[in-house]
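An example makes the point: we print one protein in full, the chain in one-letter code, the fold tokenised, without further comment:
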Amino acid sequence: MSTGSVAPRVAPARGTSIDDLLARIRAGHRPDVDETDALLHAPLDSLLPVAAALRDEGLIDAGRPGVVTYSRKVFVPLTTLCRDRCHYCVFVDTPGQLNLLRKPAYMSPEQVLTVVRQGQALGCKEALLTLGDRPEERWPEARAWLDAHGFASTIDYVAHIARLITAETGMLVHANPGVMHPDELAALRPVSPSMGMMLETTSRRLFEEPGQVHFGSPDKDPDLRLGVIDDAGAAGIPFTTGILVGIGETVRDRAESLVAMRDRHDRHGHVQEVIVQNFRAKPRTAMQGVPDADLAEYVAAVATARLVFGPRMRIQVPPNLSDPGELGLLIAAGIDDWGGVSPLTADHVNPERPWPQIDDLAAQTAAHGYTLRERLTAHPEFVRDAARWIDPALHAPLRALADAEGLAADVTPHASLPEGTHAVTSGGRGTEGGLPLDVASSARPSSSAHPGSTPSAHPGSPGGVPGSDLGVRRLAERAASDPLSLDDADWVRLLRTTGAELDDLTAAADDARRYTVGEPITLVQNRNLTSTGLRRTGRTAPGEFDLDDATAIAADAAALGATEICIQGALRGDEDPAGYLDLVRAVKRGAPGIHVHAYRPLDVRDLADRGGLGLAGALAALREAGVDTVPGTGVKVLSERVRALVAPGDLEIDHWVEGITAAHRAGFRSTSVLFYGHVETAEERIAHLRRLREIQTETRGFAEFVPIPLPGGDVPLVADRAPIDEHRAMVAVSRLMLSGSIPHVQIPWTRVGRDTAAVLLRSGGDDLGGTLYDGRVRPDTGIEQGLELPVAAAERIARSLMRPFRLRTTDYRVAAEGGARA
């Protein structure tokens, strides 16, 4: 994997020095292919300052100096069928794979709106529709689905869905459906203010030569793709395109590709952004063994794109395809846009690369001297000149979301309204340049049904039906779309489902999982260390350890491949509370780079009280000692009644809430849990989940939720319901009720077993927690000693479900390669 260090690059010997060429470019010269080739070979310390200066000049000219943009989006994978066979792609499925995954050929309108509405609630203004190229021309199953639903083609369905999204939510669509003919571009223009298609490369060798990445993929013909870019310009469509670096193309191919895109833009002025994307190898592909794009070559391509296109082009890189430490280098290379980033959905094309948190991306951008601002699907220059570039049908919804600069206003898109109306948020200011002045009375696009489709009812819209009158399937679909619209009785009803209704519930939950966090099943390599066993004066009994042992345990865990040590448990009363801090330091001595996930609110409270630090002081001391994240355990159900009956030694509920929210405010992310199957009622489970959502709304600190059966409980909510169905209902309701709030639902395989865990991963779960290595040093010091999930076993579970497997870090980033594969 690439790192932040870059090998020196040596400029080729040429008749004109690179410095002379760069000086001419700085003065306005536009490099030809030969000169672009030379730039791609040039030293980065020569390229980057000029590229950055051009970017800064362009931002000043655009009236937003020092601003780097992004679009807050939801990613909608409308279909994963495709007629192409690209050797690096994990996005596409075959019909047989779809059947095994219980996945439809195309997302239904209801499924699309479920995802889009959740994104809308999180402030998203863009719905990115991505799909395979013309699947109906390869797969009879795709053609049959389109025929059955009354659509002439996949593009026809894209147009219908785009129209529906804007009509129902006010969000704008960026359509990315691959190769399009002029009539298809014209059909999409009234429903999609911007469109896109990556050129990738002009290399005919990669397309024509057997064994190369694009061989057998008719839509990857470079001439065909260049023709689409031209046709989009002739149609007056703001268009996104770009290159893919590291797929086997030569440096000369990159030079020709950049100049070819510039030539098309010169004709029409329609290319709104150029993406420079780095190849990342993906498992289960023909290119899984090919190295990732070389960092130095990638950065050179980014800087050269800026030099070729000049100051006014937006140059974009995907932030999730680079490590956080590399983002500053990309800013230095002249980028001014991060593209679409989702607070809700995975990058379904690159599922192994999670999006950065938008707050983290803003902080990274600010650390390098720039301000992050949100934009719309169409870039500001095209929004301000909407009379020329945007179809009149989209002027009203566009203006409702745009500010005076053409960037995104601080508004939330509106949910469905009575037909013929379109509200404007008071914060949404219009722009100059062609948008109607009186948008409040403008008709929005109608959501009238396409042949073969059925408009969906939604709470707050005409035709909405109270949840108590709905069947479980409709209620579950509504829960997936708008979980806050259900009352407690609705959720209790779902929690008590059985038989076919339970199947409907788990199917809806699994769809919510699929279309938000995606298909990967994740696992972290970790080891538990129970801090209650710490004895500074030396161990005297099984399960005990001293600080030197802790150092050795951490070193051993890291040697096994662990990236996390999980520490929890209150110290004995005769142990100095400073032991909490000393233990963390001892672990960090043994494994300096390991992630320490340490201390429940109960443990932190003990340090705060006995250590005389106070809660804020204790959290600050833990941070200084090396704690990275905290467990949100130490509570069963957020009910004093339940605590008194089941766990009176647990922290009082108010104190637990105070502790976890204080940890979040101090910058720690945490897990969250619910222990079930004992004395709690269904209503108390629902109240617990609601309280977690409320905390998450306030702090955004929960990374995951774990529904855990209480050992020895096994008290069913429904008499005679099988234990596995108790678990299925709990996982499904958790996914639906927390959707759009807490992203990951972890399956506690230690409590339910591996076979049941596989079933629950089809009920809305996406994570298996940790390996829980016992290790070779003091294996008895972990609370779950004797229970291990080797990586190979977790991979087998994922394979049995036809889903990809990914090792993760504690905070759900991609784990570094090279870990143990026990």
About this structure: The longest strand covers residues 67-79.
